[in-house]
Amino acid sequence: HVQLVESGGGMIQAGGSLRLSCQSSGQSFATHTLYWGREAPGKGHQWVATITSSNSPNYADFVKGRFTISRDNAKQQIYLQMTGIMPEDTAVYYCYSHLGDWGQGTQVSVFS
Description:
Layout: E1 3-7, E2 10-13, E3 18-25, E4 34-40, E5 44-51, E6 57-59, E7 67-72, E8 77-82, E9 91-97, E10 106-111
């Protein structure tokens, strides 16, 4: 298992950009499939993006073309580059692993 710590959230104006980071600690980071998800009040958990151990990304339809997931195995980090941010992107963003490990989340609040 791994420990995951997200950072990079904050308040951002609609149309802006933000990069979230997720720091992992533990072994075999490069072999892990990792995910970004989010939770907004009243919406439950939404899967946002996946990056596999072979660096293959996949995205939810509502972020395609706007968000980019990436990883740096040397730093044991994954990232979520968010562009064209919209008010409906307001949520707590979590990273989690295929092993079921979750971070504590980072809040993204979008204002018009």
